[in-house]
């Protein structure tokens, strides 16, 4: 038995580098339509794309095969990218995000902590370039809604300089 962490380390995460972007496949769903000759399958892919330096987006693609659905999702994700503030490899402050029944709490962590998160939230944080973060998800465990809730939380982040500029005061 390896370390007592409980996580399998030998499994390869579905990830690839297309140009300057990191894309991670979060979920692939198979849908079946019953037709005269049997079942016809179609696939839906949820993909998170980031540049590893504060830009991240998600996409959802559907097609009759897996590779075209992933390509469509990546194309949509690169179009929907948002910029998030990263301070010393972590987020500037504690933040909560939600989407539907998914609730996500993101907390800054000290250097060397790593990304403490489930698979869906981890994909978003790693694609965005966050190296140290503590997370907790509440409500549903659906990866699609967890990704959307995480990006909702990251979009709400503000740096100290942003808050000073918006309020017109000095916080030091």
In short:
With 172 residues, the protein is of the alpha+beta class. The protein has helices at residues 66-79, 119-128, 143-155, 160-167, and strands spanning 15-18, 21-35, 38-50, 55-63, 82-83, 95-99, 102-108, 115-116, 133-139. It folds into 2 domains: 15-82, Double Stranded RNA Binding Domain (2-Layer Sandwich); 85-167, 2-Layer Sandwich (Ribosomal Protein S5, domain 2).
Walk me through this protein's architecture:
This protein is α+β, with helices and mostly antiparallel strands and 172 residues long. It is built from 4 helices and 9 strands, in the order ββββαββββαβαα. It has 2 domains: 15-82, Double Stranded RNA Binding Domain, CATH 3.30.160; 85-167, Ribosomal Protein S5, domain 2. It has helices at residues 66-79, 119-128, 143-155, 160-167; strands spanning 15-18, 21-35, 38-50, 55-63, 82-83, 95-99, 102-108, 115-116, 133-139. The strands form 2 sheets. The protein has a 5-stranded antiparallel sheet. A 4-stranded mixed sheet has the order 6-7-9-8. A hairpin with a 2-residue loop joins strand 2 and strand 3. Helix 2 (119-128) runs parallel beside helix 3 (143-155). The protein starts with 14 loop residues before the first strand and ends in a 5-residue tail after the last helix. Residues 1-12 have low confidence and may be disordered.
Q: What portion of residues is helical?
A: 25-40%
Biggest sheet details: 5 strands, antiparallel
N-to-C CA distance? 51 Å
CATH architecture of the largest domain: 2-Layer Sandwich
């Amino acid at each position: 038995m390896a370390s007592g962490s409980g996580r399998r380390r030998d499994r390869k995460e579905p990830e690839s580098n297309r140009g300057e972007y990191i894309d991670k496949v979060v979920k692939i769903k198979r849908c079946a339509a019953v037709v005269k000759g049997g079942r016809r399958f179609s696939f839906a892919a949820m993909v998170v794309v980031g540049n590893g330096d504060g830009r991240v987006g998600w996409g959802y693609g559907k097609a009759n095969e897996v590779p075209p659905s992933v390509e469509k999702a990546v194309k949509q994700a690169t179009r929907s990218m948002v910029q998030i503030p990263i301070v010393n490899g972590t987020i500037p402050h504690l933040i909560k995000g939600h989407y539907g029944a998914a609730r996500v709490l993101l907390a800054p962590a000290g250097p060397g902590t790593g990304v403490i998160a489930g698979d869906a939230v981890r994909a978003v944080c790693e694609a965005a370039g966050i190296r140290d973060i503590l997370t907790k998800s509440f409500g549903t465990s659906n990866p699609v809604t967890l990704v959307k809730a995480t990006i909702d939380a990251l979009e709400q982040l503000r740096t100290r300089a942003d808050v000073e500029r918006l309020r017109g005061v000095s916080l030091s």
